[in-house]
Amino acid sequence: MKKVIYGNHAVSWGVKLARAEVISAYPITPQTQVVEELSEMCASGELDARYIMVESEHSAMAACIGAAATGARAFTATSSQGLALMHELLHWAAGARHPIVMADINRAMGPGWNIWTEQTDSLAQRDTGWIQLYCETNQEVLDTTIMSFRLAEQVNLPVMVVLDAFYLSHTAEPVEIPDASLVDAFLPKRQAKLKLDPADPRSFNALVRPDDYMEMRHSLQQAMREARTAFDEVEEAWEQSFGRRYGAVEAYHIDDADLVLVVSGTMVSTARHVIDQRRAAGERVGLVKLKMFRPFPTETLRAALAGVDKVAVLDRNLSPGRGGIFAEEIRAALYDVPPDDRPQLFGYVLGLGGRDIRPDTIESVIDRTRATDAPQREDLWVGLNA
Amino acid sequence: MSELRLEARDIPVSRMSTLVNKTGSWKYIRPVYHDRIAPCNQGCPVGIDIEGYLNLLREDRLDEALDLLLRENPMPAITGRVCDHPCETACNRRELDGAVGIHAVERVLGDLALERPVEASAVRHTEQVAVVGSGPAGLACAYHLNRLGYAVTVFEASPAAGGMLRLGIPEYRLPRPVLDRQIERLRQAGIDFVCNVRVGVDLQWSVLSWFDAVFIGTGAHLPKPLGLAGEDNPAVRQGLDFLEEVNGGGRPEVGRTVIVIGGGNTAMDCARSARRLGADVTVMYRRTRAEMPAILDEIADAEREGVRLEFLASPVAFGDDSEGVVDVVFERMILGEPDASGRRAPVPTGERFEHAVDLVLLATGENASLEWLPPEVKVGRGSIPVDRLGATGAGKYYSGGDVAGHDRTVAHALGAGKRAAIGIDRQLRALRGDAIPNAATPAELDALRLGPEGNLSIARWRREDPVRRVSPLDEVVGPEQLNLTHFEPAERHRDHKPNGRTAQTFDEVNLGLTSAEALAEAKRCFNCGVCNECELCLIYCPDVAIRRGTDGNRFEIDLDYCKGCGVCAEECPRGAISMTREGL
Fold this sequence. Notes:
By secondary structure, chain A is an alpha/beta fold. Chain A folds into 2 domains: 2-242, Rossmann fold; 249-381, Rossmann fold (3-Layer(aba) Sandwich), CATH 3.40.50.920. Chain A has helices spanning 7-17, 32-44, 57-69, 80-85, 87-95, 120-123, 138-155, 180-186, 210-242, 267-280, 298-305, 325-334, 359-371, and strands at residues 2-6, 22-25, 50-53, 74-78, 101-106, 131-134, 159-164, 172-176, 249-252, 259-263, 285-290, 292-294, 310-315, 344-349, 380-381. A 7-stranded mixed beta sheet of chain A has the order 3-2-4-5-7-6-12, sandwiched between helices. Chain A is globular. Chain B folds into 4 domains: 16-35 and 532-581, Alpha-Beta Plaits (2-Layer Sandwich), CATH 3.30.70; 49-116 and 488-518, Alpha-helical ferredoxin (Fumarate Reductase Iron-sulfur Protein, Chain B, domain 2, Orthogonal Bundle), CATH 1.10.1060.10; 128-220 and 368-440, FAD/NAD(P)-binding domain (3-Layer(bba) Sandwich), CATH 3.50.50.60; 223-367, FAD/NAD(P)-binding domain. Chain B has helices at residues 39-43, 50-58, 62-72, 76-82, 86-90, 102-113, 136-148, 164-167, 176-188, 239-247, 265-276, 296-304, 410-432, 442-448, 458-461, 515-522, 536-540, 567-571, and strands spanning 29-33, 128-132, 151-155, 192-194, 213-216, 222-223, 236-238, 257-261, 280-285, 308-311, 313-320, 326-338, 344-357, 359-362, 366-367, 397-399, 546-548, 555-557, 577-581. In chain B, the strands form 6 sheets. Chain B has a 5-stranded parallel beta sheet, covered by helices on one side. A 5-stranded parallel beta sheet of chain B has the order 7-14-8-9-10. The longest helix of chain B has 23 residues, at 410-432. Classes of the chains: A alpha/beta, B alpha/beta. Chains A and B meet through α7 and α9 of A and loops of B.
């Protein structure tokens, strides 16, 4: 069945098909439609889940943690300041190894108060222990939401499904709605081994002394490592049932490319369009789409970029005092590539606060990269007003 | 899935069960389940367990709901139509979105009850009781004594039983088939009715001497003269006299214009009846709308039917006009300080004005029917003084209702008749040799009350309350003891639905609720003060120390782990849990 739905409602449909058992959220633009639709699904009975109203995002995540601790499949969604308010509990969810799935609709952090898209909110939660998956289309949003529950429960880590405000959240696209029975086969009911059980009560997450804490952090790191391969397995299973896969990293026209763009989110679609045109004109240019940010797909990315002359990383995000966050991570990933194979990396900061990234924006990045012999020390800001 | 690989070394999990940690040792206060009294129950002059039967309706236990209602109220089909429902005034749901429409629900149940026989008593006593007067007080006394197993004979001066229900209340408010069916139901239960007999006139009181107890419920229907010039004009009629004629099927000539003097239910009944006989009707009341004692819906219906209301006018004299028209002289009043009734009193201004009309109906109150009483029964100020259980102090004579000075509503009369039935049963059991103290102690009566100001429960007197109470407390639950956040708003059903016709017929005006609407309305009840097993306490307890009970207890609290946080009592939507000091 195909439906024309918003990116936000693609999340809702994914959660419904995943048969989430507990949903708790606090509304914030541009996330509101996600939970509005879910609350109606709960009210009508088409989704048999407990919908818990709360007074803040902090409480929403706390409710999801409580639910997940009892073995329930829990979901929430938020944006920007709401995600920032959850910060403490994001650490908790990951440290306690709760397989919670959350949608984050990328929205710029205020001030200036801004509701439009930017990736800084989710990237600022980089070190909390959440898997992060960025989406390009509404179909990818729906598919990723369902796959995330399976991935989360397989490695006992929370997953953040990330999508652009408005360009995706409030844009309607045709979406194939998977058959519910096939989804049930792909994603059976959650089976938690360690959970709160009144019949056998245990203390969870109490004080841990230096003798044990590091081992637990090591286990978390191992789980993240495992998540990298588990993601491919989950996508493999998804493709077998539904015929679609996305890849932690997707390479597009890079085989003979001397210049490759690294992009994420909805700007990938714009960049594909530009690449198609440049290819038609005979230019050797390609792109790499970064879907997975945590765990960072270092090996896959290195394999894709090694031997390319120039790599331009487009960052719709900012770590003030350093620059684009993706560019920084990719520089680190390429550091020990042998110098002969190591590409030059050009960083560009653009599209902050929802500023449009148009085909000519990307053209200018390509042209600028071609025209420059060596990367500048700091990432270049594209399209700043004079 | 591979989640099963997660081990206790990956996250901090205790090796041992936490049951060893008895958090209950921390507490200094603890929760206790106590059923309290819902304010509607205390507010009901009949003394009905309203919350109880609404709760049974909520659980779709219709038969048991009817049974609970009929244990206290002999005639819900009638009170469901004519009661001024103080229960709804007391209802805590007012604080959210409007009182529960108890009155309309009762009517639907009452109509169902008309088709059911009165539950027969398991025992038959040899003692016999006479009831003099077949108004609501007498009928209630007869009904309850019949259910207790006594033989009861009701004496009525009029040709048909019903008292003020038949003589005073118009058909458009209380259709006669409903009243007749109600009386018939009592007759079928074995109560004897002897009509057309005025005890004290046609039959000497001494003839009743072979009855073991006598209840006097002769009501209040004697004219209360205003003492004004021209009051003897034939075009100046007692309102009750007029109503008796109309309610008996008479259709007296009322002329073109009618003035009704008064602001109570009798005034509304007179005005609306005269309107149905074709007159242009004005009600003259000496205070203002806010002080009118009439039921609000009656006032609204009267105005909708074209009755005019004029305020702050008191009659001074009735003049004779040459063409058979009465010139009524009024004096303009203003409102002064509150009087004994708590309402602001009318104060004359000296300003006079006249209305010329064809008929004046006086509805300014009636005197109790105290003539022809047995000599032993003492009369106080305008009524027969009685104690809490209706005893007059004169041996076997009991009394209740209008004649005994109780509030003049059907509900108060039903409540007084019930109290007297308890009093008579108590006295006869004492005479029979049951171990009962001579006089009812305050503690004994308190144990029967539905709240500190409530009427007595005959179910409690009979010790066969079908509702299981968990350590009940004699406290009425106010809105401050509820947790309203747990209740969904649900609009009250519109329960006063005029039939749409103009004031031309004596057909019943209010169409009432359908059964489905009544059931939905019943489910708006909060069940104030009474645990209805909503399980919120169980869900909210942070220590998982509450569980479903065994041995008939609804819930049990594991005091080994309850640390006395009070969350259950705070979250309980209906105030059925209280926190008490540890060790008390």
